[in-house]
Amino acid sequence: MRLNTVLGLMPALLGAQSLAYEVQTPPLDTDWTYKVGTNPWPEYPRPLLQRPTWQNLNGVWKWRAAGAGEGAMPPLNETLTQDVLVPSCLESGLSGVQLLNQTYSWFARDFTVPPDWSKQDGRIILNFEAVDYEATIFINGRQAGFNRGGYWHFSVDATDYLSVNGTNKLHVFVYDPTDTPGVNIPIGKQTRTPSHIFYRSCTGLWQTVWMEWVPSTYISGVEIAAGMDGQVNMTVSVNSSAGYPESVSVSVISADGDVVASHDAPPNAPFDFVVDSPELWSPEKPTLYNITIKTGSDEVTSYTGFRTVSRGKVNGIERPLINGEFSFHFGTLDQGFWPDGLYTPPSVEAMVYDLKVLKGLGMNMLRKHIKVEPALFYRACDELGLLLIQDMPSLQASGNVKPNAAQQAEFERQFDILINQHKSYPSIYTWVVYNEGWGQLLNNGTYPEEGLTARARELDPTRLVDATSGWFDHGYGDYSDNHHYANPQCGSPFYSIQSSPWDPSRIAIQGEFGGIGHNVSIEHLWKVEQAILELNQTYELDADLDAYNYRAHRLLDELREQVEFYACSGAIWTQTTDVEGEVNGLLTYDRRILRPNEDQWKADIQALYDTAQSRNEGNMVVQKMLR
Ligand SMILES: *[C@@H]1O[C@H](CO)[C@@H](O)[C@H](O)[C@H]1NC(C)=O
Ligand SMILES: *[C@@H]1O[C@H](CO)[C@@H](O)[C@H](O)[C@H]1NC(C)=O
Ligand SMILES: *[C@@H]1O[C@H](CO)[C@@H](O)[C@H](O)[C@H]1NC(C)=O
Ligand SMILES: *[C@@H]1O[C@H](CO)[C@@H](O)[C@H](O)[C@H]1NC(C)=O
Ligand SMILES: *[C@@H]1O[C@H](CO)[C@@H](O)[C@H](O)[C@H]1NC(C)=O
Ligand SMILES: *[C@@H]1O[C@H](CO)[C@@H](O)[C@H](O)[C@H]1NC(C)=O
Ligand SMILES: *[C@@H]1O[C@H](CO)[C@@H](O)[C@H](O)[C@H]1NC(C)=O
Ligand SMILES: *[C@@H]1O[C@H](CO)[C@@H](O)[C@H](O)[C@H]1NC(C)=O
Ligand SMILES: *[C@@H]1O[C@H](CO)[C@@H](O)[C@H](O)[C@H]1NC(C)=O
């Protein structure tokens, strides 16, 4: 119950008094909206580095708007005026604020340190899974940290700022300059002026905030890559205020609990060892192994999957290979937007629901489109067996706006972070640098995707790079990636304006196609006037679900023919769900209607895999059609 109801007061009479949290009515809700409550995202948020001593700091925080110059001094003696739910986007109904265009904000909460954490010598680390766009962290009025970039995990060693036996004040100053003239930052599809394929933006603490106790010598990071040959390449980062240990001890544990390998190595440097005949990870059988890592009194749990990503010719065609084999890769363009939470899925259950729908239709891959998700999303893909093509969130999409040198350098810095923070998830097999020319410098002597492709390979030699998904391909990266609506043009001897011809020396994929739409009744639409007026910009509108499924069948069969006749190795259907003014999802934006005829789609998708398998086996006469 909200405070004004308890007090019997009208909200207006409360004036600047704090309002108790209440979910606001978003332009469209989901079945999860009103189940979120005030204890959102309670799950342990960091599956690759798990520790038992932690405390979630999600829940109801205080918030108020701020001005540009306020970030130097937190409003310590002030109770901020409004409740806000963390994690959430300020613009979302779930935030309880649902306010647009807020460039500067204060977020605050009090917290106490669990009593047993202060009994042993150690450190207390504050973790922010993602804050959009800049966050300055104050603990008890003193600045303890800063982060730039809306998609990344960051940590603050809070120990020296804390009172371990009293109340601590945590303030976060957020600066989110979305669409500010002259600003060009990694932003994906966020905008303050939504229209067609660009959507409502996200500001603030949109992923889990939490703290943990660690010993004075502690494991602060882990990188793992495990191949089909059983080789495990690892780096374990250790931070210490009490001298560095000589070694860390690693054990790999099978699903039935057996230790299948143990290894000791020095911290803060790469090492490797071999697990004999591991059961491999694949989309069909996504076997994972737990890993325990110990040093001194610290012990954490992680996991990996044994699989090798490579490319090579199979019967004369350049293919992406998982564990040395080619299977056709098929999935959706997955934007990760929610009508109630925008960038923040209402819950883990909701987030995983989308993935299970895709897997249930027979898909084995998805393209995470110019957004980065909470770590538990990647964990879910690892568990479910869904290969991931991970895009870098793009800079401004407008063709007239290109980054200056400083903006380009910041984009490149954040591209490194994308790879470093995500390169241990087995499901990710491809990094995308640019989408459809957005933010891609085209006439500065060199093409930046050349250097960025090399950089991706340097940071992560175990995956493929798609330098340009759609439009301006200059020959870099592992893919020749076409975008075309509604029909695919995948590894085919025909292409259209604004796409590049197929390059037989690289892997042919259809980075986007489909996009066929079907309007629905108003209760399933994003109830914003402009969005409804723009529904007619959907690439194609089919009058009813019969027409939609007829068209989908034609397009999937056309794609199958491109697998049979030409060099097509994978394709991405636009898209998982409707978003705002787009009605071309497999699911509506509220996830309440599934448009595909499931039996038909499963058969059409299976036919893609079967056709590719026949090509592998050289069973198809049509191969001679390839030059
Ligand atoms: C907050 O209040 C305390 C005690 O009243 C005072 O000493 C301090 O200067 C105030 N801080 C600010 C930032 O106003
Ligand atoms: C809290 O801890 C500090 C030292 O960290 C100590 O000086 C102070 O007396 C303690 N206060 C209480 C109420 O225990
Ligand atoms: C938000 O900002 C955009 C762009 O400046 C403007 O078009 C829009 O009307 C603003 N919306 C609100 C609610 O202030
Ligand atoms: C491990 O590192 C070696 C040497 O750099 C490399 O050849 C191998 O591909 C790597 N394996 C994995 C699974 O990353
Ligand atoms: C190690 O911890 C110290 C504070 O204890 C911090 O300043 C430093 O950034 C940390 N280093 C790493 C690599 O995390
Ligand atoms: C592996 O780790 C997960 C998550 O920490 C745990 O739930 C599971 O029981 C572990 N499995 C084995 C075999 O240890
Ligand atoms: C353009 O190229 C020049 C020299 O190659 C470089 O100094 C400059 O920073 C580049 N500009 C941008 C926006 O990247
Ligand atoms: C879609 O349906 C909504 C009502 O559900 C209607 O207002 C809108 O005009 C329709 N748009 C198109 C392009 O059919
Ligand atoms: C879409 O509908 C709007 C009015 O709702 C109209 O102004 C516009 O021309 C239509 N666009 C297309 C592509 O049909």
Automatic annotation (TrEMBL):
Pfam families: Glyco_hydro_2 (PF00703), Glyco_hydro_2_C (PF02836), Glyco_hydro_2_N (PF02837). Residues 104-177 form the Glycosyl hydrolases family 2 sugar binding domain. Residues 1-20 form the signal peptide. GO terms for molecular function: hydrolase activity, hydrolyzing O-glycosyl compounds. One of its GO terms (biological process) is carbohydrate metabolic process. Residues 348-470 form the Glycoside hydrolase family 2 catalytic domain. Keywords: Glycosidase, Hydrolase, Signal. Residues 228-307 form the Glycoside hydrolase family 2 immunoglobulin-like beta-sandwich domain. It comes from the Eukaryota. Belongs to the glycosyl hydrolase 2 family. This is Glycoside hydrolase family 2 protein.
